[in-house]
Specification:
With about 270 residues, the chain is α/β, with parallel strands linked by helices. Helix 1 crosses helix 10 and helix 5 crosses helix 10. It has eleven helices and twelve strands. It binds 2'-monophosphoadenosine-5'-diphosphate (ATR). The site of 2'-monophosphoadenosine-5'-diphosphate (ATR) has 15 residues, from helix 6.
């Protein structure tokens, strides 16, 4: 039987095994998927030994996504730009390939699951860390009219914007310069939600029809989703759908079949609450 796994540390709370086992069942694929805690200094050798046995593919999570990027000999353009890899597998020539499905997962959740649009929209992205870098290329590929990256440390937002400036109208700034601007879609990729905090942005960034998207999710609305709802956003969406969609994209890369994510999203949502 083909083996798959997610490598991370810590990994106990990963929902990936449950998601991929559900995909395998619904598509009739014979495979196993497990969560494996890898010691920080054992990453490379654990990848090599997994993929030289029955292992066919890996998901990679914190803290190994950058290391996985460096280890891959072939990287997709979106992974190249993300500077991080969440999906590893070997191609027919045996080369170690790395992809990053986080951004396409989020874009698919917005467009397919929620019926949203990015094309032609004014997009604000909060944060300038790894999570944001991981989604920039797939967002820009949708041809938004502009993307503003705003971060607590403004210089990091400016640097990140420069990295993708060839892909569209992108600029970087601090939170304090958002006064007087408003957006159609606001994506929160800061780690503020982890502390139950909302980045200090003026509520004037919201118009009546603004959609808000938090890359994080929780059993009850995240601080950012709550803030969005309180200030009149048309929709506020958390990142549970992104989690399942990035898994669906990895599954498709490995198996060549696209699983239905809707049932799995509903199943996870029910289990959360
Ligand atoms: P990740 O991989 O989750 O993106 P990261 O690379 O450490 O983690 O980035 C964390 C992001 O959340 C950064 O943009 C950080 O802002 P700084 O660059 O100024 O550090 C942002 N962040 C973390 N805590 C925050 C808070 N309480 N309010 C606003 N932004 C916060």
């Amino acid at each position: 039987t083909d083996r798959y796994a997610v490598f991370g540390n810590p990994i106990k709370h990963s929902k990936s095994p449950q998601i991929h086992q559900a995909f395998a069942q619904s598509t009739g694929q014979d495979l196993t998927y497990e969560a494996i805690a890898v010691a920080e200094d054992q990453f490379t050798q654990t990848v090599e030994s997994f993929l030289s046995g029955d292992g066919r593919g890996l998901n990679i999570t914190i803290p190994f996504k950058q290391e996985a990027w460096a280890l891959a000999s072939v990287r997709s353009p979106r992974a190249e730009l993300a500077g991080a890899v969440n999906t590893l597998y070997r191609d027919e020539q045996g080369r170690l390939c790395g992809d990053n499905t986080d951004g396409i997962g989020m874009v698919r959740d917005i467009i397919r699951n929620h019926g949203g649009t990015i094309k032609g929209k004014r997009v604000l992205i909060l944060g300038a860390g790894g999570a944001v870098r991981g989604v920039l290329q797939p967002v820009l590929e949708q041809n938004p009219s502009c993307v503003v990256i705003a971060n607590r440390t403004a210089s990091k937002a400016v640097e990140l914007a420069a990295l993708v400036s060839h892909l569209g109208d992108v600029s970087g700034c601090g939170f304090d310069t958002l006064d007087g601007q408003c957006f159609d879609l606001i994506i929160n990729g800061t780690a503020a939600s982890l502390q139950g905090e909302v980045p200090p942005i003026p509520a004037t960034v919201l118009a009546d029809n603004t959609w808000c998207y938090d890359m994080m999710y929780a059993a009850s609305p995240t601080a950012f989703c709550q803030w969005a709802a309180d200030h009149g956003a048309e929709k506020s969406i958390d990142g549970l759908g992104m989690l399942v969609e990035q898994a669906a994209q990895s599954f498709q890369i490995w198996r060549g079949v696209e699983p239905d994510s809707q049932a799995v999203i509903e199943q996870l949502r029910t289990a959360l609450t």
